[in-house]
# Entry
Amino acid sequence: MNVSLAKVSRSAALAATRSPLSAVRMFATSGTPSTHAREGLVLGLYSSNKLCGVDQANLSQAQQQHILDHASALGHKGESGTVHLMLSDDLKKQIAVVGLGSESAAEGQTEVVRMAVASGVKRLCANKVDSVTIGPMPCARSASEGATLALYSFDKFKNTAKADDKPNQPQIKFMAAEQKKELAAEWTAGEVYAEAQNWARDLMNTPANHMTPSIFAQNVKSELEKLDGVQVNSYDGKWAEEQRMGGLLAVSRGSEEPLRFVEIIYRGNQASGDVSLAMVGKGITFDTGGYSLKPGKHMDLMKGDMGGGATVVAAMRAIAKLRMPINVVATVPLCENMISGRATKVSDIYT
# Structure
């Protein structure tokens, strides 16, 4: 039941004299509770009608009961994937109650927590809150990851004339992190994971004329070389010829954009020269298919054909930021696959 702001304002005084169920009917909503309440709170609800981590949530018995009564009135049974909005008993907070499913399942399924928190944050952002506090969750890292991913938007090329058109970016904090240092560390790790993913999303969403092989390589150097233990090498077409990289050279022939070959070296274990992990990511910054031309429908999505490369460099960012005690090497061959008089033809031989 959606309740307008005017109705809430007129009825606030009466609500205090009514029963809890009457108050639920007056204020509880699965839609937009109030634009005056600028603080947001995300709380998890199990299918057993139990709030997650109430011992860490700083909620009184009356407040807990208020939330449970409202959730019940909305038909919220704590199913995984559900989210309902309501107002706190003092009308100062918008609360997103997110379903976590069964308590035993939520403890072992980090994706449930990640998706639940993300959905709660998105709903609160849509209501223009200034801050969002994430209540206790079974997995702090997944909660952090979900909250950070939910704030992602790609609008760098949009000309927003109105302030209201800009995506809302509220401040996010984790309630339980204030009480336990180990949870604070898990929360920080989740932020690192999500920020790396969001960087990969930026790289893939950027139009190909703004994400050429050269620009991609420069972005990687700018982002990663400032991190401890990271070395970034960017090689050109002449180097690729010396290395006899016939496949890369053949694909790049049809484009006016020069190829690049990016090598990222992370040394997290200085005591060993062994490489623990090697990763290779595809870096075709736009793929027309060449003379095996792809269908025109959805051709615009081929700007994301370097998604493998974006994922690999983002993974290296997270590895370095987390200071993992391993040695890792990642490589990303970068070029465009275009059509021209110089493009490689079907049945051509290259070495």
The longest helix spans residues 181-205.
